[in-house]
Structure formats: structure tokens, C-alpha cells
Amino acid sequence: MNTMIELPKRSLPTALLLGAAVGSVFLGVGGRVAMRIFALLTDRAPGWSFEGSLTVVFVGAVFGMIGGVLLWLGRRFFRTSPMARGALFWIPLSLLYLRVLSPLSTDSLIAFTPFVVLYGVVLYRIWCRRVVASWRVHQIMATA
């Protein structure tokens, strides 16, 4: 849909909060599950601590906020181009993922990629179908 939707004043905090929430679930908790899968794939002894798990969830929320900012920037600067908005979200997200993945191996890609892709898909879908769609409804009601 190529309609012009104005950004509300609270759109950036909404994007940050949504990114943090989805990121903590898929990148944080999912990342912890992926670490367990990676340990099993590489025959390493899996370890677990409450503090370590909280750290991973927190880092997932922080990286999730980056995705929220990317979605907000796409809506801010490419209002009529869904392809450009998608590229602005997926390309940096993919490059950042490949940069922070250590070690970059087949086993790590197998363990972590599904959670990163799920994070991206869920965040993008909620942003487009729920958040931005609600702005359009509010704007239609305001002009009526």
C-alpha cells in the first residue's frame, strides 16, 4: 500500500518499545535456546546461569531496539516505498547479525538464524499490520 501515513509524535518510543519487547523474546530467550542448540551441535558442555540468561535477554532487547529504530527510519524517510523500507530494515539487520555471530560457522548459522529471522518477521509484521495500520485509522477518523 503506497498511502502516505504521517508519523505520530510518539512513534519513535513505540518503535523502541516494540523492538525491545520482540527482541527480548526472540533474540534474548531465543538466543539462549540457540546457545543450547549450538552447544549440542559442537559437543560442548552446555552451561546455564540466571545472570547469564538475564544478560542475554537484555542484549536481545537492546539489539531489538535497533530493529525498531530501523523500522521507524524506514517509515520516516521512505513513506511511499515499501521496498525501500524493507531494504532499510533487512539489509542492516542481516549485516549486523553476521557481524556479531561468533564463531561464524555452519553450526552457529544453523542454531541462531531461525531466531533472527523469526525476530525480523514478527517485528516487521507487528509494525506494519498493527502499529502503522492503527495510525492510518486514527488519521482517517481525524479527517472525517
The gist of it:
The chain is mostly helical and about 140 residues long.
Radius of gyration: 17 Å
Mean pLDDT: 89
What is the number of independent domains?
Answer: 1
Largest β sheet strand count, sense and barrel closure: none
What's the tally of helices? 4
> What's the count of strands?
0
Low-confidence stretches: none
Series of H and E elements: HHHH
Distance between the termini: 21 Å
Structural class: mainly alpha
Quote the beta fraction.
under 5%
Query: What does the overall shape look like?
Result: elongated
Helix content: over 70%
Fold and architecture overview:
With 144 residues, the chain is mainly alpha-helical. The protein has helices at residues 11-41, 50-77, 82-100, 106-143. Helix 1 (11-41) crosses helix 2 (50-77) and helix 1 (11-41) packs antiparallel against helix 4 (106-143). The longest helix is centred in the C-terminal third of the chain and has 38 residues, at 106-143. It starts with 10 loop residues before the first helix and ends with a helix.
List the helices and strands and how they pair.
Elements: H1 11-41, H2 50-77, H3 82-100, H4 106-143
Helix pairs in contact: 1-2, 1-4, 2-3, 2-4
Summarize this structure as a short list of keywords or feature phrases.
mainly alpha, 144 residues, 81% helix, 4 helices
